[in-house]
Amino acid sequence: MEEKISQLRYVTITAILCFAVIGNFLFWQNWLIGLVAGLAYLLFYSFIFGSIFVAKKGWQIIFGLLWLLAVIAIFGAGLIYLYQFNNYTFILLILIIPAMLITPYYFAQPLENFSLRRTVKNYLDKFNERQESKTNIVLVLIYLVLASGLFFLLVHGQTQESIQSPWQVVNRFFIPAYFLATICLLTYLFNSFRTKLPLILIIIHTFLSTAVALIVYQIGYGFDPFIHQATEKIISQTGTILPKPLYYLGQYAIVVFLNKLTFIDLTFLDKILVPVLYSLFIPTTTFYVFSHWLRKNLALVLSLVFLVIPYSGFIMTAPQNLANLFFIITILLSLLYFRNLLAALVLYLLALATCAIHPLAGLPLLVTVFLLNLFKVLYHSYIKYLSLYFFTSLVFILVLPLAFLASGSTLNLSPSAFHLSDFNFLHWIDKFDLLLNLAYLVKLNAVFLSTLLIITGLLHIGKNKLLKNNAGYLIAAFIIFADFFIVKYFVDFPALRDNDKTDFISRLAILGFYVLLPFFLLGIYWLAKKFWQKDLYYKTFLIFVLATAVTISLYLSYPRLNQYEPANFFSLSASDIKAVDLIEQIAAPDHIVLANQMVGAAAIRETGFKKYYNNQFYYSMPMGQPQNFYNDFLEMVYQGAKRETMQRAMTEAGVKEGYLVLNSYWGNFNQTVKLASASADNVYKIDNGKIYIFQYLNKN
């Protein structure tokens, strides 16, 4: 029997929540009130939103929160671009959400009033019915002890130094202990009779896996997040950002909304957003979707084994990462759409939110959702004439290349970068380290291994005569991979360096894989089921292999420093921030700084987008056009730190003062320090020489 909150209670709760949230926002501005009232607001309207589309009790809040964030991303992005997402429009959005949900929530006549007391009692009755064995209780306790120890090791390894990999500072026992914790959890999941407790443990383990960088890098991990955080601060203060971009605004809207709602620090919210949402939504969505077809314990295992897919894109918050997360969730939920358990409207809502966050993921997702929707609506025609559906779909191959051309990219009809080696997916490596050999064997052959699992999943559904029913996914994936090929070989990006272009284009291939994700997971399920049906030795081997794969994925999801590959990225350090602060104290109002991009990130963190010269940030950056200042920095570092180079940069900027900042981790550090000391007017040292600052004065 369907339960609904009475309309009087809905209006009363809405009045209380809106009064608390808006009152705290306008008058009290207390973070504790904001946290309590803000969470209550999110939970209540997530429940309402989820109840409109999800029938299963207990799942309304989870999926309602996802759809609520999607609405905030769409509305917030529209406000930032068309007007302002300021204090007044924030209050308006707080009031619009309850008004928007009340009609669809009561569209279906409630058959029984909602009772929290009855809901809790029913849950406790079911909880008591599902008694765990003593072995399972012991496994849960061991896992919790190991997980607590692992979080302790991460906290103990925190640093503000420039490092290339978190594994440099995290205790060496972390990975072996993680492996043991994964074995305990997998063993419990295979034998579990419950649902909620295992899911909670999986969420904990997923967060443990994605939070290494979040915990270890005290100042922050990566480069892009500092730029986005500075942008979000400006939007929070002014309501918009100039010039107004057509992308990223969805993420900015979510972070600014949550900041205004709860008064939690905006930078902290930005840092945790993707790792927390990934840890919450990926396990729950995977379980919820596959539990409609598979035994619940195997659906739980799939929720954990999802971690075999390296998640380097989800260990920090960036628009592409958040958009990819929405992409994955939408693909998984689309399986329920074909089972008539979810409306197409929800998929389009998520696709539009993804477009608002990052069009590179949003446009392919919108095309995919449309193709899936089209396939289902015209199922009886297309199931007989798949070729007609295929040729109809081919027109969408042009969508993404045309979008790139419209945004300033150029067409290259004589590609010179085509190499047969690009299609070599089998690799072997041996540098006499067994564990690293195994990890890199997986990494280098990831495409081959993933293809095998996808084919296994396709064979499984083909055996059950369901392959034609899933043609929409195969054709959507074909279109995205075709776009990847076209963009890789026939489209140029003048604003991107070669390395950045390779990384940018590879995102399309990843999206193609995400469309095929259901088959990948079904391939794992089929293999796991086959092994688990056999004797103890096979079961032990299965758990060992899955735990090994999850642990390898953990290692590969973070920067590494070993003999197998170079680690060129250095994190932002406290010394970088000190260097920026010192320059701000001693420099004239108009000056430029030639430095590596992490010092530039420190400048953005400390001063925001303070000043530009000729469309270039006053700290040299390898981004945007032109990049003359950054090229001047490279020339200073690698061609002798000549005063003429700095003079040219100062002349271009029209300033009388310039600085060269050099970090001690540069390969030719000592030689460059010697040459720069001879050419500069003044020299400053930070933290006993971790960073040198060279001041140049334009005396012309």
Explain this structure.
It is a single chain. This protein has 700 residues and is mostly helical. The protein is built from 30 helices and ten strands. The chain has a four-stranded mixed β-sheet with strand order 5-8-10-9. A two-stranded parallel sheet has the order 1-2. It is globular, with a radius of gyration of 27 Å. The termini are far apart.
Write the layout of secondary structure elements.
Elements: E1 3-4, H1 7-28, H2 31-53, H3 60-82, H4 87-105, E2 112-113, H5 116-129, H6 134-156, H7 174-190, H8 196-210, H9 212-216, H10 224-238, H11 249-262, H12 266-290, H13 296-305, H14 319-338, H15 344-357, H16 359-377, H17 379-382, H18 386-393, H19 399-406, E3 410-411, H20 434-444, H21 446-463, H22 471-490, E4 491-492, H23 498-515, H24 517-532, H25 536-556, H26 574-586, E5 592-594, H27 597-607, E6 612-613, E7 616-617, H28 628-638, H29 643-653, E8 657-663, H30 669-679, E9 682-686, E10 691-697
Parallel strand pairs: 1-2, 5-8
Antiparallel strand pairs: 3-4, 6-7, 8-10, 9-10
Helix pairs in contact: 1-2, 1-4, 2-3, 2-4, 2-11, 3-11, 3-15, 6-7, 6-8, 7-8, 7-25, 8-12, 10-11, 10-12, 10-27, 11-12, 11-15, 12-13, 12-14, 13-24, 14-15, 14-16, 15-16, 16-22, 16-23, 20-25, 21-24, 22-23, 26-27, 28-29
